[in-house]
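Per reviewer request, we include the raw input and output of the structure prediction for the construct analysed in the revised manuscript.
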Amino acid sequence: MTPPIQDLYPDDFAHCFGCGRHNPHGHQLKSFEQGEEVVAHFTPSAHHIAVPGFVYGGLLASLVAAAPADVEVRSRATGWLSANPSHPQAYQLIAPLVAGNPSDTDMRSLATTWVNANDSHPQAHWLLASLVAGNPSDADVRLLATAWLDANPSHSQAYQLIASLVAGNPSDADRRSLAIAWLDANASHPQAHEVLKPLIAANPDDVDIIERSRATLECDKTPSVGRVELLRTLIIRSSANAEWLARGTAYVEQADAVNREQIIGPLLVGSKALPKYIDLALEFARQSTARQRSVILYYLLRAVVANPSAGADYLLDDTRDEDRKNTVRDSVAHAIRNSGGSPPALDCLKELVARLPPPQIGKILARVIKLDARAEVLNPIISRWLDEHFRCTGYGFVIGALKENRRFAEQLQTCPDFTARVAKDLNGASSIAPRIAITKPAAPAPRILPKAGERVEAELLAERTKKQGWKARHLATGLAGPIQDSAVVPPESKPGDRVTLTIRMATEREIAFAWFDNVTRRPKLPAHSTPR
């Protein structure tokens, strides 16, 4: 089955409440191509209730928002609106229809008619924001929006409309002045970042806007989604400014930080994949959820492909952990496959071929072949590399991968650069067994597991168990698991603390601890327990 359409969206467009894969609180709808149709399924949960037996109307509007251009969805929605023109919640349907069909004059007319008839409606700003976003240069729409703002200067949601006006008209001095005036009057507004983000995007070098952003970040250092979004925008738009890279790194290292992956990604891209940030990303990915890991690896792909020399520098450094090098190699291979052999990915591969030793390139090319990243533009690169490094270290990785993927091998052999001597090795026609020098990675030293009852050094983790108990990582093996008597962990303890724990059990994949009293130097027992 082909991947869902939403998985192909760029990261910046993957936060939609309806279908955004990076929105943990949204519906995360998945749409699949089935013939000439695109189909998505959604089953409401019990908490989506309006009254018994009926789904909440706002939920239906959010589903329309996820497929606003669908002919049947539009037909049903406009049919309902025609039958309910004065319904107080009609704006919830009109807004996504306008947002999904920005050039549709019928949708625009429907929206402006409703706004003119409901100019005092408390949610008119929401529909106006969709109109502005879809028609940012339309003078009538801008006039309608500005008139509403003049009539509602202290409306708590005015920032939504101002943000749309600024984003749609980035060089308009009047829109900028409007946003600045709102920020001056609402310096401590919890959504100030929503107005600052489009201002920064349009004016990344504006000293006044940067200072306002700095003040907003300093005003409230509590980790929040808004704080992450503002910091993320500053890192992306500042062209690797040292201050924002440092602030981003400091945020990621906070024990109580939220959405770290949304900061690590821009750090990777903004720093042009400096090894320091690759290490930071890979360390976080090692401890993160599958969703977070996918975000990190996506940004790693972008960073390495955009800055291939940085990826080469990382792989050339023999001090790097082999598992982390494998992750970078996999990221390069996935980028080449996902790009279909686009020029940036090819440039990345060519740069790596020029700078990396044969064993490293052999592993990358073998991974490309195993991922079945077939593209005609790759054939000359692989063919020439095989001939130039005939039976050298790394050659065997590529030949082995081709023998496993015969379709790739057949396509590759149609390339004019594919030589007869390589074909003999691949097809087993050589009278002399090829002496392929393969440098196998050193086998990892066997992990020595601690025994039950043994006292060990561990680090408390921010991640909790399902029952909100503590988890810890054994420093010697890297295994992480629960502290089974979390209730006796001192309340002043915090993630990152190094502590002595007692092993309850340990296997190659699992470990469990008991709290060890670091004062009396004995396992801490619950109050009702009696030592034997």
